[in-house]
């Protein structure tokens, strides 16, 4: 979330993708809170369901890309001193994000928070950031294998209430480790795989548009193939709960099929946004595009605001009374519009968003 540091020209397609990922996360999160998992309007409910686990995956992919670009992208830093300095910066920012996420989790009861996971992931990434491509691929495969074994041997429902809305032993050492590593909303096994994939994507030459187009098609094709194989396997197994548990592409529980599908869809989306950046240059919608880009540049600020302001108001005023899916759509659209306007006005006076500035000041 807004941690990219690079001396090369900024690829605004990443910021555009990040802004739309914010909108997707708002739709998913507000539906989780306000509809209480009940379906009133199947159309919008189904459309929002398609974003579950996908918008967050795009966030993590972009985070990996940003960290990769900090390390030099296609030409990684080779001096030990520079590598050590970058690792130190990552760890300090990781601690900042972890603390911020824990504040959201405790003060605002935001159990779906991703920031404290984000902090844990960044500490791990700091240790493998300069590893060879082959080593990172093997690590990703190993993570998926370990995650699958854990899901087979451990109780995925442990710690959760029946409706999966609260985690009753989060503030115990055992519960915190289980939640962080295994069965929280974004557990390290296997969610860190998205950031590792992002590290590899960040080593791509995104200025080579022919390569971008080719990889867009490959990613979209891979996503469709994985989704098809998932459904075929579930069908062949009789559609049992066990088959769904092992082969589904939904984020809870996060199977290897989910990670593969979400990573492929997310990668295709990021490549598409990169191409959109070039297309916009030839059109008359550049001002609208740049406004959304500025929103993506303040992703950390907006992520926190979408939780604190909206949920804070409804906890206080409305006590989370039930709302339907159209309310969620309208609320998300309204909040996103407010984010865009705030971003445009703020960045006229400042280089970075409010929380981005605080993070830079505290963590470097």
Please tell me about this protein's structure.
The chain is an all-alpha fold. The protein has one domain. 71% of the residues lie in helices and 0% in strands. It contains 15 helices and no strands. Helix 1 runs antiparallel to helix 14, helix 5 crosses helix 8 and helix 12 packs across helix 14. It is globular.
What is this structure's SSE topology?
Layout: H1 12-34, H2 42-49, H3 54-70, H4 80-107, H5 115-128, H6 133-153, H7 173-183, H8 188-201, H9 209-236, H10 241-247, H11 256-280, H12 286-297, H13 299-317, H14 325-346, H15 354-363
Quick tags:
364 residues, mainly alpha, 0% strand
Structural class: mainly alpha
Shape: globular
Counting copies of identical and different chains, the oligomeric state is single chain
Cα Rg? 20 Å
Mean of all residue-level pLDDT scores? 90
Portion in helices: over 70%
Number of strands: 0
Whole-number tally of structural domains: 1
User: In this structure, how is the largest beta sheet organized?
Assistant: none
Number of helices, where a helix is a run of at least 4 consecutive DSSP H or I residues:
15
Q: Roughly how many Å apart are the termini?
A: 15 Å
| SSE arrangement, N to C | HHHHHHHHHHHHHHH
Bin the strand percentage: under 5%
Instruction: Extract low-pLDDT stretches.
Output: 2-8
Can I get a quick summary?
The protein is built from 15 helices and no strands. The protein is mainly α. Helix 3 (54-70) crosses helix 11 (256-280) and helix 9 (209-236) packs antiparallel against helix 11 (256-280).
